[in-house]
Each structure stands twice: as structure tokens, then as C-alpha cells.
Specification:
Blueprint lengths: L2 H12 L3 H6 L3 H7 L8 E3 L4 H5 L2 E6 L2 E8 L2 E7 L4 E10 L7 E6 L2 E5 L1 E4 L4 E4 L11 H5 E4 L1 H11 E6 L5 E6 L3 H4 L3 H10 L15 H8 L6 H7 L10 H6 L13 H4 L14 H4 L20 H5 L2 E3 L6 E3 L15
Antiparallel strand pairs: 1-5, 2-3, 3-4, 4-5, 5-6, 6-7, 7-10, 8-9, 11-12, 13-14
Helix pairs in contact: 1-8
Length: 337
């Protein structure tokens, strides 16, 4: 029997989810993706391990006390000033939890971002990024930040796959997390063609052949680009979170050189690799003794990124971010803007 029809039968047996369909042929990537941060960029509150494993969380600032309490499969977010209180069920958990996890709830038909987030480093709650300095004159302001429909579309659109909205801007359906179809935009057509055994129509663009700038534009649909940050900020330590902006400011950055593209160092299908020495081979793609155009380091040939891409802690985020601006970093240097 034709190989395409054999695969088509397997695909059909798996159901209609594109990620499942992809797994038939792309087993390595699919298996790695199960633990990838992007796959867990959005979870329903009932699926969040942080909320499952922390049944009673609390935080206090001034006269306001915050709590997240778990009962059965529901996590309830509350804030009180000692006189009145506001409570709502958490619906969505944003973030895989490498840095933290932020929560969305609905109240009176509107979406709100909870004022506090969970930080693994603290094993507890602290202010959600951008909320520490907000004015809190009453319980409504203290509870969270109201999100309009446009922002809700952006947030859920980047943290999920195939989000479907009604004309009234109500969310009708989505697939949680960043799945295959979010980056491989023709994945559904590819899977359908495989189902039909139509090899000619099953060809999809290879992202691995994209030039650095092309790939950056693809990633930039969700990860802010150099132009976004240059025009709108943030300035100072906060922009270390925007890796592509920092990388573009490196002297060695070349928009046509795929050796400095995001995927040259990071496999988007898998876990974030934290072993600094594992990146040495990536650095050596350019910085080899045999390469007369590139300088070699006189100090060391190991753990390159620990010196040339140092870590900085962003205030209030309880996490040390790697600065992707490649440079000769010296002790006492002022954080570069």
C-alpha cells in the first residue's frame, strides 16, 4: 500500500487536532514539544500545577490583602480591604512558570488581569509585572487591571492557538498553548493533504531555511521586534526581557546570517537549555581560530555566554534574565539601554 495512504489512515485515527496529526510523522518534535515552555504558555486554571500544588496563597500590601484559594478544581481570587471584598474564579493562567504565572478572571462581563502573580522563586505571590505602581484608591482598582477586548485578543492570541472570537468579541474556542499551527501556518492544510494522500499538496515552507530577519518577523508576531521596543520601550533594565531587541543591538548581528538567528541556539520544540556550556558550540560556529574574520576570546573557550551574555535580575520579577546583547561585558558596567 502507498506510504501516503498508510500515514493518512494514521492521521485520521488521531482525530482533528493539528498537533496530534503532526505527531504521526514528526514524533521527535512532538515529544519534545510536550515539555516546551511555549506549549504551556496558556492553561485553564484547573490545569495549572502551581494552583494545584498551592491551595492557599496570600499576599498583603498596605490595607489590601490578596488570596488565591483552591477548592476541588476551582481557584478563587480574592482581595479585601478589611471592610469589603471582591472575589472571582480564575479562568486562565498565563505563562509556563519559568519566570512566573499571571491570572485572568472575569467580572461583570469584563476581563481583568489579577494584581498579583505566582513566582516560583518565591513559592508565593507578588505584584504582577506593571502593577506594583498602580493607583489603588478602592477595591475595584486594587483587585486588578481591566483589559479591553483588543488586548484580550492579543494576549490570548499569542498564548494559544486557533483562537476563535464572536462578533461580540466573546471567546468561542481555542487550543491552549502555542501548538504547531501557530508557527507553521499551513500545518492544517499539510495534515489534510496527508490525510487525502496528496503528496503534491503536502509540501510546507521550511522555517529552517528562513533568513534571520524573516524568522524574526515570524517570531515577532508575539515576541516584540527591535522596532517595537525602539519606538515604544521599555527603556533600561526592563527591556532585557525582549531578547530579539537585545540581540539586534549586538555588534555581530547580521540580518542575513542564520548562525545568529533565534533558532540557531534555541530549539522552539523543546525545553529551555540552562547549561551554559551547551551553548559553546553555537558560539564557535562564528568564533573559531580558523575564522580570520571573528575574534577569539583570550580568557576562556568554555561557558562563553556567562561573560558575553550576562544575566541581570529585573526588579520585582524575581528572575535573572540572560541579556542577549552579545558584547564584552566588564564588571561594574552600567546596564546598557
Amino acid at each position: 500500500m502507498n506510504r501516503w495512504f498508510l500515514l493518512a489512515g494514521q492521521v485520521a485515527a488521531l482525530g482533528t487536532t493539528v498537533a496530534q496529526d503532526c505527531e504521526v510523522c514528526h514524533r521527535r518534535e512532538a515529544e519534545a514539544a510536550k515539555s516546551a515552555p511555549m506549549t504551556h504558555a496558556l492553561q485553564r486554571a484547573g490545569e495549572s500545577d502551581f494552583l494545584k500544588n498551592n491551595l492557599d496563597l496570600s499576599f498583603r500590601s498596605g490595607k489590601f490583602s490578596y488570596s488565591i484559594r483552591r477548592e476541588d478544581n476551582t481557584s478563587t481570587y480574592s482581595v479585601t480591604d478589611g471592610i469589603g471584598s471582591i472575589s472571582a474564579s480564575i479562568e486562565w493562567a498565563f505563562g509556563a512558570g519559568i519566570v512566573g504565572q499571571t491570572y485572568l478572571y472575569r467580572r461583570d462581563g469584563a476581563w481583568y488581569e489579577a494584581a498579583v502573580s505566582f513566582y516560583p522563586e518565591l513559592k508565593g505571590l507578588d505584584w504582577t509585572p506593571g502593577q506594583a505602581g498602580r493607583l489603588r484608591r478602592n477595591l475595584e482598582e486594587a483587585a486588578g487591571r481591566k483589559i479591553d477586548s483588543a488586548e484580550a485578543r492579543r494576549c490570548l492570541g499569542c498564548h494559544s492557538t486557533n483562537a476563535v472570537w464572536s462578533r461580540a468579541s466573546d471567546l468561542e474556542s481555542l487550543t491552549t498553548g502555542v501548538q504547531c499551527a501557530q508557527c507553521h501556518t499551513s500545518a492544517a492544510q499539510h495534515a489534510a493533504a496527508m490525510t487525502r494522500g496528496d503528496a503534491a499538496r503536502a509540501v510546507v515552507p521550511k522555517l529552517a531555511t528562513m533568513e534571520t530577519e524573516e524568522l524574526a518577523n515570524l517570531c515577532g508576531k508575539c515576541h516584540p521586534s527591535w522596532a517595537d521596543i525602539a519606538a515604544n520601550g521599555p527603556r533600561g533594565p526592563l527591556n532585557i526581557r525582549f531578547q530579539f531587541y537585545r540581540l539586534t543591538n549586538s555588534r555581530c548581528y547580521d540580518s542575513a546570517d542564520r548562525r545568529i538567528a533565534c533558532t540557531a541556539c534555541h530549539d522552539p520544540h523543546g525545553r529551555l537549555v540552562k547549561d551554559s556550556s551547551s551553548y559553546d558550540s553555537k558560539c564557535q560556529q562564528c568564533h573559531l581560530v580558523a575564522n580570520a574574520r571573528a575574534k577569539t576570546c583570550p580568557v576562556s573557550k568554555r561557558d562563553c555566554i556567562t561573560c558575553h551574555m550576562p544575566k541581570f535580575e529585573v526588579p520585582e520579577l524575581h528572575y535573572q534574565f540572560t541579556d542577549h546583547r552579545i558584547r564584552i561585558a566588564r564588571a561594574g558596567d552600567k546596564y546598557p539601554d
